Amino acid sequence: MKAEILSVGTELLLGDILNTNAQYISRELANFGINVYYQTVVGDNPERLKNAYNFALNRADIVITTGGLGPTKDDLTKEIAAEYFNKKLVLDNKSLQEIITFFKKINREISENNKKQAYFPEGSIIIENNNGTAPGCIIEENNKIAILLPGPPKEMIPMLNETVIPYLKKFHEGTLVSKVLRITGIGESSVDNLIGHIIDNQTNPTVAPYAKDNEVILRLTAKTNNEEEAYRIIEPVERQIRNKLGDINVYGVENQTIEGVVAKLLIENKLTISTAESCTGGLLAGQLINYPGISSAFLEGAVTYSNKAKINRLKVKEDTLIKFGAVSSECAAEMAEGIAKESGTNIGVSTTGIAGPDGGTDEKPVGLVYVGIYINGIVKTKKLNLVGNRQKIRDRAVAYTLDWIRRELIKYLKEGNN
């Protein structure tokens, strides 16, 4: 089945509100095999909204709308749907009583315009809203389905999960199971070059790639009679993908994060870590601290932004700064070793660079970052040339650093150092 998401609201067109609903709905539909080929945003205008319904229902089996179910005159999603399907709007007494009860809970009297929210196209399936005053509805007509949901995510998401998804699942035979592979260290184009033939020849399971900040995600989805069989079908394709990409580049599965993988390696192998940051200003430490239980491994993080702090706190040699500068491989190495020794940790990690927008030169341009890592007496450095604004450069430096820590830890442990 094909679906289209129709997001209603002038505030979305103006950019006042980020359209997170469409992202959430698309992901949930993809999880059980409903394809979303179009997402449309339309303002609170009757004619344009009716045209949007017409386009959507001509090219999709299911149209899911969000927004426009409120009490005001410009909330017209139900009204235009009723007009489109040539249905009368009729009062649903149960919904009206629930709206009245909602207002009583918050010690307010229901207004006349709120009663409009209890009217629905005749024959609709009502979707209860336990978190607001705008119930939704499902209209089935001529082998087409329109599902109308409110705009606020705190209302829309529970209604989608509790009512809409179970309703849509009845149109699917068998079981759909997905597994997500998370890839870092190689870009989207490299992934496509390496496994493009697998994607091109996909049948069951399907392989869907998409890029996120600093990583690539592959979703493998199998349709079978049961979950066990689905994973059995996914396994050889996953193995083939890992072989092609290099297992080290597949850092995790499902909802794992790169900082979580690093933290788990540290904790399980009883290794301690400390960080010394200049250009990233504590972002690296903040990412590691995202992981619950990291306190057993992460002992200290220092933001040593000035040369004076690098000298006093990390024991970076003044001669190193004079000869090579703060943004250098030599400085990164001494920072990593210095924080490890000062903190008494097995591992020390450092970042130093030029995040911009000013301060770059031909020799050391904006985006130049050096990373240092010290592991029980072994010191290594890495040079990064990053692009983007100041925040992007800092974020990317942290992402690359976490991945490098992961790779170096795996190498260190494989060499029998655990």
Q: How are the SSEs placed, and which strands pair?
A:
Layout: E1 2-8, H1 10-13, H2 20-30, E2 35-42, H3 46-59, E3 62-66, H4 77-84, E4 89-91, H5 93-105, H6 112-115, E5 119-121, E6 125-127, E7 136-141, E8 144-149, H7 153-169, E9 175-183, H8 188-200, E10 206-212, E11 215-224, H9 227-245, E12 250-253, H10 258-268, E13 273-277, H11 283-289, E14 298-303, H12 307-314, H13 318-324, H14 329-343, E15 347-353, E16 368-375, E17 378-385, H15 390-414
Parallel strand pairs: 1-2, 1-3, 3-8, 13-14, 13-15
Antiparallel strand pairs: 4-5, 6-7, 7-8, 9-11, 9-12, 10-11, 15-16, 16-17
Helix pairs in contact: 2-7, 3-4, 8-9, 10-15
Please give a structural write-up.
This is Putative competence-damage inducible protein. It comes from Clostridium pasteurianum DSM 525 = ATCC 6013. Pfam families: CinA, CinA_KH, MoCF_biosynth. InterPro entries: CinA (IPR050101), CinA-like_C (IPR036653), CinA_C (IPR008136), CinA_KH (IPR041424), Competence-induced_CinA (IPR008135), MoaB/Mog-like_dom_sf (IPR036425), MoaB/Mog_dom (IPR001453). The protein is of the alpha/beta class. The chain folds into three domains: 2-169, Molybdenum Cofactor Biosythetic Enzyme, Chain A (3-Layer(aba) Sandwich), CATH 3.40.980; 181-253, Alpha-Beta Plaits; 258-414, Maf protein (Alpha-Beta Complex), CATH 3.90.950.20. It is 42% helix and 25% strand. The chain contains 15 helices and 17 strands. The chain has helices at residues 10-13, 20-30, 46-59, 77-84, 93-105, 112-115, 153-169, 188-200, 227-245, 258-268, 283-289, 307-314, 318-324, 329-343, 390-414, and strands spanning 2-8, 35-42, 62-66, 89-91, 119-121, 125-127, 136-141, 144-149, 175-183, 206-212, 215-224, 250-253, 273-277, 298-303, 347-353, 368-375, 378-385. The strands form four sheets. It has a six-stranded mixed sheet, with helices on both faces. Strands 14-13-15-16-17 form a five-stranded mixed sheet, sandwiched between helices. It has a four-stranded antiparallel sheet with strand order 10-11-9-12. It is elongated and about 85 Å long.
